[in-house]
Amino acid sequence: MKMIKRKYIIPVIVLFAFVFNSCDKVDPPYVELRDYCNGNRNVLIEDYTGHGCNNCPEAAVLANQLKDEFCKRIVIIAVHAGYFAEPYFENDPLFSADFRTEAGNEWDSFFGNSAMGNPNGLISRVKGPTGYVFYKDSWRKVADTLLQKNAEAFISIENEFNSDSRTLSTTVETVFEESINRNYKVIVCITQDGIIAPQKNKNEEIGETPIDVDYVHNHVLRGSINGSWGENLSNSGAVVKDETYTKTYSKVFPEEWIPADCHVVAFVYDEETKEVLQVEELAVME
Amino acid sequence: MKKIISILAIVLAFGTTINAQDFIKRSQVHGSFEVDGMYYHADDELGITDSIINGNVFGMNAFADIIYTLGDFSAGFRYEAYLPPIAGFDRSLEGQGFPYIWASYSTGKFSFTAGNFYEQFGNGFTLRTYQEWTLGYDNSINGARVVYEPTQGIILKGVYGTQRFFWSKYEKNGRGIVKGFDGEINLNDVFSSMSDSKLKLILGGSAVSKYQADSDPYYKLPENVAAFAGRFNLGYGKFNFSSEYAYKINDPSAVNGYIYKPGDAFIFSGSYSRRGLGVFAQFKRIDNMSFKSDEAVTSNALDINFLPPLVEAHTYMLAAMYPYATQPNGEIGYQIEINYKVPKKSKLGGKYGMGISINYSQMNDIAREKANDTAYIGQSGTMGWKSDFFKFGDQIFNRDLTVEIDKKFSRKFKSIFKYIYQDYDIATLLGHEGEPNVKANIAIIDMTWKFTSKKSIRWEVQGLWTKEDKGDWAAALIEYTISPHWFFTIADQYNYGNKHSNEQIHYYTGSFGYTLKTTRFALTYGRQREGVVCVGGVCRQVPASSGFYVTISSSF
């Protein structure tokens, strides 16, 4: 019997040692931050949410936290769509608000966000291993990777708001760093901060549970002002280096849109891959 | 497809070494197929409108599993299609292809597998890969496995590879690489002095490690995370004891909220059995033991290990309404089961005897304390918490008392009576935040009348009474079977106690099925209530739906 022991005990110990060696014990501090203020490519986080989704406030907090961590190079759009965003959610009159929009519904249907269970999001509409949709635990990592990249395009926005006619006139200029033989589009939309309306919530540190009746909804998508899928930047299906592509739009604000709380968000994307190359936002009234 | 061609090439290469007739004679092919299809339609009462269905009226999950053997060589593949997946299955499954392709060769003491394989070490605390069709779950390893049996009673296994993640291919710096080793020794087989011993002892140990590059911008993540486990199984006469303890080093992940404490898992089982009586007891404690090959994944995928549940698995309609899902971040509890067969011809047992089974299980949260004064419990980027090993937390996740009596009254008539009490933490287990634990009493009567040797009728009557969640339910089912070919079933679940009168809904279904040898066809029409399907403590949510459900399966 001793023979058997000697013969096999050594390889067994070697194999265990092999795995044991494969251990990295991490010592504190457990977190470290890069310097994000030196980059020039911004990242769009579309937070797909709904007032009936009790996990969604945590995602909203995370999106804002990432904006701070990443030197404000994040633009957030809260897209209320799908089951959890339905007005009178679960027959509850508290949830009478309807923050759904035509653009949000179309995006949700195309990218499949609400079908995968909220909260989740799109990060500059890049595609991951299982599709466009990322749960919030992946947002930081995906955004970080994009923030390391150099911008291929730059956007500038100019707004003028006529308070009498409640009309916004916005001009969006895009300049590319390289000539690229692909078709790019620009989407220009309006988001609104500071809307107080009930929200289901499970995190006491964020607000009242299980329903926060005075929840402050920020970055709420109010709609796209140039269609759900935007407009081509050039007619040729290609873009030329250093040429300025200018688009001007005007929009009459409905009563419930408070201009002082609204932003214009403009993003340029590749029509085929849907990836957002650059995004900017600017307050409607500065 | 290229892989299949390569495997076929290997098969043909083998074929050339033996003569053609022998080749055909010794070759065997086995397979199984299944197609599950769903057609949805709008149902106002369930709140399902055409705009929710949004044109997605069909769902289909299908597979074909083919295995070829030639002597010591075997190979196979599984084709799967989800076009699109049936509602309630992970949308990431959408697509079709060959996710499982393998070839295996055994020679004497060695067995080699290349490609995809399923494996389990001990209870699965360090490693278990498996496939569960009803969950849409598959975490097979794609790589290589060697099994070595140097002598009878010793088994050594080594595995190396990456896990299946829906349809996505492995990419460098993507999901982790898994390597593992397991050794098991049956002392009664190895030591001749113990071969006739009344004491039966098996010892085992495993070590599993994953490598995943740290690409996290924020947390300092360990790139190599290992887990170790030791186990024994001891039998002595009518008694049997088994236990396993596993330990995992720091493994911050999205599941544990990026905490850095090590994890551990412990299970102890004891049983006693003699003719007519079986007693079984188990204790389990899990602390921070989720182990996935991608730290960022929170869905039911890429699990390296498996944490077995300690709760009666209910199959009756209403009893399955509140199923338990294992809590990998921490749970502590026990299960006791007694099975007694009242002897035939006794007063209680009657002519045919009577079976009595009592099962009680309880699972609590572990007791957690702050890891230090400055951090709250579970705070990301800290040690997370401290926990006393044997202390139960105050929060009850689940309690279940099941009493079952099965009794045969005559040659033609038998029945099962069941009473269940459940105390269920619906906030934690189903995400109904802020809602109190559901305390439910459930009664079930199941009777079968066999009026000829081939024809029988079975009916169930069930009730579930609770003040919480959706209130009281009643259910009934009638099933007529003409064996071996036909069955016809009508069932209804009625939520008569729902406090919202518009949600007092009947969930009716009607189905029939036909079986011919190994081929089975079944068609169901009706409503599916919103719920959760769990197998082995792993669960998926099922939305309410209405429509036709068809399933066709066959094997050869």
CATH class of the domain at 108-308 in chain B: Mainly Beta
Biggest interface, chains and residue tallies: A-B, 48 and 58 residues
Strand content of chain A: 25-35%
Structural class of chain B: mainly beta
| Cα radius of gyration of chain A in angstroms | 23 Å
* Helicity range of chain A: 10-25%
Q: Low-confidence spans of chain A: pLDDT under 50, at least 5 residues?
A: none
β-strand number of chain B: 30
Helix content of chain B: under 10%
What is the global morphology of chain B? globular
- By DSSP (H or I, 4+ residues per run), the number of helices of chain A equals 4
CATH topology of chain A: the name is Immunoglobulin-like
Unreliable spans of chain B are: none
Residue fraction in strands of chain B: over 45%
Give the CATH H-level superfamily of chain A: Immunoglobulins
Summed up, the domain count of chain A is 1
Number of strands of chain A: 15
Overall pLDDT of chain A: 91
Rounded radius of gyration of chain B (Å) = 26 Å
Q: Structural class per helix/strand content of chain A? A: alpha+beta
What does this structure look like?
The complex is a heterodimer of chains A (286) and B (556). With 286 residues, chain A is an alpha+beta fold. Chain A has four helices and 15 strands. Chain A has helices spanning 2-20, 56-69, 102-111, 136-147, and strands at residues 43-49, 74-80, 120-123, 153-162, 167-176, 184-192, 195-196, 199-200, 211-212, 216-217, 220-224, 231-232, 244-252, 262-270, 276-283. In chain A, strands 6, 11, 12, 14 and 15 form a five-stranded antiparallel beta sheet that branches. A three-stranded mixed beta sheet of chain A has the order 2-1-3, sandwiched between helices. The mean pLDDT of chain A is 91. By secondary structure, chain B is mainly β. Chain B has a domain at 108-308: Porin (Beta Barrel), CATH 2.40.160. In chain B, β24 and β25 (486-494) form a beta hairpin. Chain B starts with a helix and ends with a strand. At the A-B interface, α1 and α4 of A face β11, β12, β13 and β14 of B.
